[in-house]
Amino acid sequence: MFISSAFAQAAAPAGGTESSLFSLLPLALMFVVLYFIMIRPQMKKQKEHKTMVEALAKGDEVVIAGGVIGRVAKISDSILHVEVADGVELQVQRASVLQVLPKGSYK
C-alpha cells in the first residue's frame, strides 16, 4: 500500500568512464589556463621584487610603500634607513620598497 512500484531502469551505456573523463577535461583546462594567466606571472613578479630588494645599496633612490621617495642611508638585514629630507630618516622594512628610481630623480 505505501510501497510504490519499482520500475527497472535501463542499463548504463557502455563507456561510462570515458564520459566522466571528458567531463573533467574542461576543469583541468581551466586550471592550466589559470596557472599561465595568473599564478606564473605573479611568481615572476615576486622573484623580480626579491632580487631588487636584495640588490639595494646605500645611496639608491627608492619609492617605499605609501609613495614616499627617499635615498637609502643605512642598510641592515631587514631594515632600511631612508632619508626623506635633510636630517629626517625613516626606518622601513626592506620589503616595503616598491621601486628603485634612476640616479638623480630625487633631489
From TrEMBL:
Keywords: Cell membrane, Membrane, Protein transport, Translocation, Transmembrane, Transmembrane helix, Transport. It is a single-pass membrane protein. It is found in: Cell membrane. It comes from the Bacteria. Pfam families: YajC. The chain crosses the membrane at residues 20-39. Belongs to the YajC family. This is Sec translocon accessory complex subunit YajC.
